[in-house]
From TrEMBL, chain A:
Family assignment from sequence similarity: Belongs to the eukaryotic/archaeal RNase P protein component 3 family.
Location of region: Disordered: 247-286
GO molecular function: RNA binding
Source species of the chain: Clunio marinus
Sequence intervals crossing the membrane: none
Protein name: CLUMA_CG010053, isoform A
Gene Ontology BP term (one): tRNA processing
Coiled-coil annotated spans: none
From TrEMBL, chain B:
Family statement: Belongs to the eukaryotic/archaeal RNase P protein component 2 family.
Protein name: Ribonuclease P/MRP protein subunit POP5
GO CC annotations on file: nucleolus; ribonuclease P complex
Stored PANTHER family: POP5 HOMOLOG, RIBONUCLEASE P_MRP SUBUNIT
Keywords: Nucleus, rRNA processing, tRNA processing
Encoding gene per record: putative Ribonuclease P
Entry's localization field: Nucleus, Nucleolus
Function: Component of ribonuclease P, a protein complex that generates mature tRNA molecules by cleaving their 5'-ends.
GO molecular function: ribonuclease P RNA binding
Biological processes annotated in GO: rRNA processing; tRNA 5'-leader removal
Length: 286, 140
């Protein structure tokens, strides 16, 4: 079971080949008070692919875990850049895809954004410099929220670049206009130790994103937890159902009486429905 | 009589290099960045901005602002990357309503700082010097 500590989370630290640089960032994160961090890898989806598994293997985090002495929980995050809906097919067949704890969609066109909100099997909808200006409408925003997906805002580009700052703020205010800033997750995307800010700073920075101080604080603590729980549900949600099913098969084969058999199978169906209901209830609760 | 409400922002400047900066320079920097991000309206709202306390050694600053417009400063502090000419970041530690509460927080913060760093000093005299320096700066 993967550990999650209650506290502040940063779900977007891009993976760097130079481990020293990454270690510096992680140490800074510990200093300012973060507890859960996701290391991001990007996969650019292409329609013509001959490889059997185009998605890269998640990086091994053992050396980084040793460096942080268990003060941080580290996760693998995959960001899928795509414009074509055929991505769902590729992802569902991939073995490596299942090894990532958190999955984010980065749609590059308006129809892809609608696809991401409607059917994409992931937890976060995100953006980059090229796709920051894509418009989103109310219907799809609420659809995504209902499907336990979250919208990301990145604060590190805001610090570095002026034009990026303007674009991020306008996107944040679009979230506010379209869906009252529900389900907003703030993360850093910091490539440098100097671009990390403390949780207190982030909650006051939230004002220029159109969030209240409370909402901003939630977006790095409570919402991050929701993202994690939703991701775990997506990854493991099917398992208990399958286990129940196996149990039912053995019990029915032992039964001799037909009517008994029928009732027990009904019972089992009921049990199965219950377990599905439980999972969904868990999702809703979270 | 209704009290005129102020807010005191306690912040720490973090940088890799050593640098010197005066309180008036700091106040000017804050004014300039508010002018940059919020324009004339912002600059006019923070007329009574003043740097009330500056700890040279640990770079702790208390800034006074009136209640309401203090959000102009607190929301853009994370965006500023320079103190004087050095690359630095401003970390907000506490926002209080009185200067007394801010000072209380400084004591708490410095105690925590002592707890974390005291282990590095092996020598007794060095340790004493380190503690004396901190206590002196607290008395200001």
């Amino acid at each position: 079971m993967i550990k999650f500590t209650n506290g502040y989370s940063d779900f977007c630290i891009p993976y760097n080949e130079k481990e020293d640089c990454l270690k510096e960032i992680l140490n800074e994160l510990i200093d300012v008070g973060f507890r859960n961090v996701a290391i991001e890898q990007t996969h650019i989806h292409q329609t013509i692919g001959s490889k059997s598994d185009p998605i890269p293997e998640p990086v091994k985090l053992d050396s980084l875990r040793a460096e942080t002495n268990g003060k941080l929980n580290l996760y693998n995050r995959l960001t899928v850049v795509y414009s074509d809906p055929s991505v769902t097919h590729v992802l569902s067949r991939s073995q490596n895809f299942k090894k990532y704890q958190i999955v984010a969609a980065l749609p590059t066109s308006e129809s892809a954004l609608q696809h991401a909100c409607q059917t994409f099997q992931g937890d976060i909808v995100t953006y980059n410099t090229d796709t920051i200006k894509i418009r989103l409408n109310r219907k799809f925003y609420y659809l995504a929220i209902r499907r336990n997906m979250f919208f990301e805002l990145k604060y590190s580009p805001v610090i570095v670049d002026a034009s990026e700052r303007r674009a991020t703020i306008s996107r944040a205010q679009q979230y506010h206009m379209v869906g009252k800033s529900k389900g907003i997750l703030i993360s850093s995307e910091a490539a440098d130790r100097f671009n990390i800010r403390s949780p207190y700073d982030i909650s006051s920075l939230g004002i220029i994103f159109g969030l209240s101080e409370e909402q901003a604080k939630c977006s790095i603590s409570t919402t991050a937890r929701k993202v994690f729980v939703a991701a775990e549900c997506r990854r493991l949600g099917r398992t208990p159902v399958l286990m129940e099913y196996a149990d039912v098969n053995t019990s029915t084969s032992e039964e001799e009486n037909e009517s008994d058999d029928e009732s027990s199978s009904q019972e089992s169906r009921k049990r199965k429905n219950d377990s599905i209901g439980e999972i969904e209830r868990k999702k809703i609760k979270s | 009589m209704v009290r005129f409400k102020n807010r005191y922002i306690l912040l720490q400047i973090k940088s890799d290099k050593k640098f010197k900066i005066s309180t008036s320079e700091l106040a000017g920097d804050f004014r300039r960045s508010i002018q940059k991000y919020y324009g004339d309206f912002g600059a006019a709202s923070v007329q009574n901005l003043a740097v009330k306390y500056f700890n040279e050694k640990h770079k702790l600053v208390i800034v006074r602002l009136s209640h309401g417009p203090h959000k102009f400063l607190s929301s853009i502090l994370p965006l500023s990357t320079k103190a004087g000419k050095e690359l630095a970041k401003f970390q907000i530690l506490y926002i209080g309503a009185t200067i007394r509460q801010c000072k209380k927080y400084i004591v708490k913060h410095q105690n925590e700082f002592i707890r974390q760093t005291i282990g590095a000093f092996k020598d007794d005299s060095e340790r004493k010097e380190f503690l004396d320096n901190i206590y002196k700066s607290l008395d200001q």
